Amino acid sequence: MSTTTVNDRTPTSPPPERRRLRATPGTFLVWGGMALFLILLFGVVASVVVNSLAGQWFDTWFPSSYTASWYGEAWREYDLGQVVSTTVIVAVAVVSLSVLIGAPASYVLARRNFPGKSLVMLVFLLPIMMPPITYGIPLATLLTYYHLAPGLTGVILANLVPSVPFVILTMTPFIEQINPSIESAARMCGANMTRMFVRILAPLLIPGVLAAAVLVLVRTVGMFELTFLTSNSESDTLVVALFTAMTGAGIRAQQSVDAMAVIYMLMMMVLLVIALRFVNPTQLVSQVRQDAD
Amino acid sequence: MSVSTGKPGKTRGSGAPTPGSRPALSHRLAERGIDRLLLLLVPALLFALVLFVYPFVYGLGLSFQPREGGLFGAYIKFFTDPSMRGLESIWITLKLAVPAAVFNVAASIPLAYKMRGKFRGKRMLTTVLVIPITLGTVLTAEGLLNFFGQRGWLNRFLELFGVGPLDLVQNYWGVLWSLIISGFPFAFLLILSYLSGIDPSLEAAARTLGADWKQRFRKITLPLLAPGLAITFCLTFVLAFSVFPSAILVGDPSGSTRVIAYVAYNAWGQQFDYPLASAAAIVMGAVELAVIVLVLLWRSRMYKGSTGGKG
């Protein structure tokens, strides 16, 4: 809001905007630190990418030869076809279930005040504010007791625990933005609850649902701890497979682990680029402000 | 609002034959916000109770039923047993998580302050900063081992200046690095969005009144930003406090980076001592919540209004 008013007011005077990047010592320090961080980051990523393409790399700046064969080797050696399909199954199941469970709840929380609302909010906030290991260990113990884990069911159930609250917190601001008088109008025209949901709310909510779904997707694909606690070798997702490959290394070539890590990074990047199309980072604030209260 | 005004009319219509006390009761409840719409909350609540509250209570109960040592046996074992070194692991975790969170928040403030305005390449810079989120712990760990390792590019570069090889991974510093790489972009994006929510005209007014940039920052921006800082600190702290895979991959899990998550997992996955593991998990949650409550208490003593412009 405020930025648009500034833009409206100052189309004729660009100098103030440029002046902000004046080279004072402070600015130098800030941009220098930023550049240093980016150089280190670039080095970290580049060293993995280069190593995953290296034929042989001993005590030199760059490998003596390059090959793409590690990717094929990693794919075969770690059975990545199965791992990737497990990851997709888990992600799709978690996303659709958490949206189905979370969206109705976020509607109520956005529109209503009722006794005990803050307690309900607390129950939904705690899984996000707690380290996954803290609730993951009792949960995994219990799931094992009921023979739901280790296995695919356990992985999906465990990953739902932080995802449902996350959907609720992401969607609540989206619903708050929908004008309630639209709903009133629909009801005045004789729509019942179901019709109002299907014909009025659902179409208006599609952006919110997509935002929540994509964010949950990114989180689930990247979630290590909960999957690690509840999976067995057949239900490992890509993160866990990577971790076990790296800790159980030794006989295996490090390059094929690196190749797998690059595959993971590319997959996550595609997801994140899609996510950023739907989610404006500034919307994080309203969501986080919800967290606090 | 709209639905609650529609609701009593509907109940009255359907309950017309018996205008007893029931419509009145539902009407009274509806006035306090309780009506059929709340049923939409049931699946999520049920889910939270079954998959979060129940396991947690179960774990709490389990932690009081150790194999030996009475009611508090598991907790006593966690804190005093020399093979567990529980207290030390709490200290190690805090020593990693607090500096990482403080650094991520503190480094984000000046950067976000400079990036508030519009300039060329802002979008690209933001995108570059988002990339670390996609890396994942394992790629970060591999990269740190390759890049910061004894024969990595960094030490090779330092060698050109005659600086001997530095031990930067497989210890405390390796884990701290990985926490900064994964946490900083997140903290930066949050703080940038809080900062851009502050109305620039407030600062412009202060400038008109003759305040220099230090005064403007200290008296206007910082108080308005404080709630956002507290929340960003909490979220980055939670991320850093639950450090687990990177403590194993780039750290020294048997020594200087024996974090509490590792201790809890060991008791669970290697020793199969579920009461002990539950006790460790409960202690972990309690310590983390204590830090968050402290930060939020500090926040509540600061400025209490909204962050400004947006609402």
TrEMBL record, chain A:
<comment type="similarity">
    <text>Belongs to the binding-protein-dependent transport system permease family.</text>
</comment>
<feature type="transmembrane region" description="Helical">
    <location>
        <begin position="88"/>
        <end position="110"/>
    </location>
</feature>
<dbReference type="InterPro" id="IPR050901">
    <property type="entry name" value="BP-dep_ABC_trans_perm"/>
</dbReference>
<dbReference type="InterPro" id="IPR000515">
    <property type="entry name" value="MetI-like"/>
</dbReference>
<feature type="transmembrane region" description="Helical">
    <location>
        <begin position="122"/>
        <end position="146"/>
    </location>
</feature>
<feature type="transmembrane region" description="Helical">
    <location>
        <begin position="28"/>
        <end position="54"/>
    </location>
</feature>
<keyword id="KW-0813">Transport</keyword>
<dbReference type="InterPro" id="IPR035906">
    <property type="entry name" value="MetI-like_sf"/>
</dbReference>
<keyword id="KW-1003">Cell membrane</keyword>
<dbReference type="Pfam" id="PF00528">
    <property type="entry name" value="BPD_transp_1"/>
</dbReference>
<keyword id="KW-0472">Membrane</keyword>
<feature type="domain" description="ABC transmembrane type-1">
    <location>
        <begin position="84"/>
        <end position="275"/>
    </location>
</feature>
<keyword id="KW-1133">Transmembrane helix</keyword>
<keyword id="KW-0812">Transmembrane</keyword>
<feature type="transmembrane region" description="Helical">
    <location>
        <begin position="261"/>
        <end position="279"/>
    </location>
</feature>
<feature type="transmembrane region" description="Helical">
    <location>
        <begin position="152"/>
        <end position="175"/>
    </location>
</feature>
<feature type="transmembrane region" description="Helical">
    <location>
        <begin position="196"/>
        <end position="218"/>
    </location>
</feature>
<protein>
    <submittedName>
        <fullName>ABC transporter permease subunit</fullName>
    </submittedName>
</protein>
UniProtKB/TrEMBL annotation, chain B:
<feature type="transmembrane region" description="Helical">
    <location>
        <begin position="125"/>
        <end position="148"/>
    </location>
</feature>
<keyword id="KW-0472">Membrane</keyword>
<dbReference type="Pfam" id="PF00528">
    <property type="entry name" value="BPD_transp_1"/>
</dbReference>
<keyword id="KW-0813">Transport</keyword>
<feature type="transmembrane region" description="Helical">
    <location>
        <begin position="276"/>
        <end position="298"/>
    </location>
</feature>
<feature type="region of interest" description="Disordered">
    <location>
        <begin position="1"/>
        <end position="24"/>
    </location>
</feature>
<keyword id="KW-0812">Transmembrane</keyword>
<feature type="domain" description="ABC transmembrane type-1">
    <location>
        <begin position="90"/>
        <end position="295"/>
    </location>
</feature>
<comment type="similarity">
    <text>Belongs to the binding-protein-dependent transport system permease family. CysTW subfamily.</text>
</comment>
<dbReference type="InterPro" id="IPR035906">
    <property type="entry name" value="MetI-like_sf"/>
</dbReference>
<keyword id="KW-1003">Cell membrane</keyword>
<feature type="transmembrane region" description="Helical">
    <location>
        <begin position="224"/>
        <end position="244"/>
    </location>
</feature>
<keyword id="KW-1133">Transmembrane helix</keyword>
<feature type="transmembrane region" description="Helical">
    <location>
        <begin position="175"/>
        <end position="195"/>
    </location>
</feature>
<protein>
    <submittedName>
        <fullName>Sugar ABC transporter permease</fullName>
    </submittedName>
</protein>
<feature type="transmembrane region" description="Helical">
    <location>
        <begin position="90"/>
        <end position="113"/>
    </location>
</feature>
<feature type="transmembrane region" description="Helical">
    <location>
        <begin position="37"/>
        <end position="57"/>
    </location>
</feature>
<dbReference type="InterPro" id="IPR000515">
    <property type="entry name" value="MetI-like"/>
</dbReference>
